[in-house]
Amino acid sequence: xxxxxxxxxxxxxxxxxxxxxxxxxxxxxxxxxxxxxxxxxxxxxxxxxxxxxxxxxxxxxxxxxxxxxxxxxxxxxxxxxxxxxxxxxxxxxxxxxxxxxxxx
Length: 104
Description:
This protein is an all-alpha fold. It folds into two domains: 4-64, no CATH class; 69-101, no CATH class. The protein contains six helices and no strands. The longest helix has 18 residues, at 19-36. The protein starts with 18 loop residues before the first helix and ends with a helix.
């Protein structure tokens, strides 16, 4: 499997949802990138180090199958309404159309 940044091996984070395993693999990946990774990826490594706990927190919820599909659906519907409401005279009417159309 081709991992993050085109590196293989330690980069199989997507395939290992257990938190402890994800922590080990993330640490191994960061070490591998620091030693052998491309220069651009080494320079971009600090956010992975700074946000390590937040990245690992994702793997606690991975078995629940976290999805942003609901939000993406609402965004898509809002954009469609905005396209349909091109001729509205003010933003208040557009806002009311979006809120009433979204069943809020």
